[in-house]
Amino acid sequence: MIVLSLTWRRQLHLFTTAFYCIEYGIAQLGALQTWANSRRNKMEALAAYKRALALGGYRSLPELFENTGCRFDFSRNTLAPLVQMLQTELGKPGSA
């Protein structure tokens, strides 16, 4: 028998400020891509991150993501490698 947890309904901000939750997803998309970039080349990832920060709040989110070396894209093409990276990382000893 499968028991479904309904505790998520206790998170009132899901109902009162849903867009706030969406912002978490957007932030995680950028953070995970930046992390992936840093695993390939730390110095370039840091330089790209600083370039995007220098733009401040004067550019659109897709432009900020692009300047960070990330994609503002929630498609399978963007998310699948990030999920794989997380699964690999979480499967390492001592990562739980």
Give your account of this protein's structure.
The chain has 96 residues and is an all-alpha fold. It has a domain at 35-83. The chain has 5 helices and no strands. The protein has helices at residues 13-16, 18-40, 42-54, 61-67, 76-90. Helix 3 packs antiparallel against helix 4. The longest helix is centred in the N-terminal third of the chain and has 23 residues, at 18-40.
SSE blueprint and pairings:
Layout: H1 13-16, H2 18-40, H3 42-54, H4 61-67, H5 76-90
Helix pairs in contact: 2-3, 3-4
Question: What tags apply to this protein structure?
Answer:
96 residues, mainly alpha, single chain, 5 helices, 65% helix, globular
Proportion of beta-strand residues: under 5%
Task: Kindly state the percentage of residues in helix.
Answer: 55-70%
Count of alpha and pi helical runs: 5
Cα end-to-end separation: 27 Å
Q: Return the string of H and E elements.
A: HHHHH
